[in-house]
Amino acid sequence: MTAPTPPFRDPHLPFAKRVDDLMSRLTLDEKTAFLHQFAPAVERLGIAAFRTGQEALHGVAWMGPATVFPQAVGLGATWNEDLVRRVGEAVSKEARVMRARDGRVGLNVWSPTVNLLRHPLWGRNEEGYSEDPKLTSAVATAYTRGLRGDHPAYWRTAPVLKHWLAHNNETARDTSSSSVRPRVLNEYDLRAFRETVEAGAVAGVMPAYNLVNGRPNHLSPHLGGHLRTWTEEDLLVCSDAGAPSNLVDSEHYFDTHEEATAAALRAGVDSFTDHGTDSSTIVARVRGALEQGLLTEADVDAAVRRQLSVRFRLGEFDAEHDPYAVTADSERDFDSPEHRALAREAAEQAVVLLKNDGVLPLAPDTRVAVVGLLADECKLDWYSGTLLHRSTPLEGLYERFGADRVSFAEGVDRVVLRTADGRFLHVPPSDEAPVEARGTEGALDPALLAGRTDLPPLTTDATGTELALVDWGEGVLTLRAPDGRYLSVAEDGFVRASADQPGGWVVQETFRLEPHANGHLLRHTGTGRPVQVAADGVKVAADDADAEVFGLTVAERGEDAVARAAAGADVVVVVAGNDPHINGRETEDRTTLRLPGHQERLLRAARAANPATVLALVSAYPYAVDAETLPAVLWTAHGGQAAGTALARVLAGDVSPAGRLPQTWYAADADLPGLLDYDVIGGRQTYLYFEGTPLFPFGHGLSYTSFGYADLAAEIENGTVSVSFTVTNTGEVAADEVAQLYVRAAEPSVPRPRRELLAHRRFALAPGASTRVSFEVPLSALAFWDVAHGRWRVEPGPYDLLVGASSEDVRLSATVAVDGEPAAPRPVRERGLEAADFDEQSGTELVDRTKVTGDAVTPAAGGSGELLYRACDFGTGVTRVTVSVAGGGTVEAALDGGPWTTALSPAAPTAGPYDYVELDGPLVAEGVHDLRIRLRGSLRLAHVGFSG
Question: Which Pfam families does UniProt cross-reference here (predicted)?
Answer without folding.
Answer: CBM_6 (PF03422), Fn3-like (PF14310), Glyco_hydro_3 (PF00933), Glyco_hydro_3_C (PF01915)
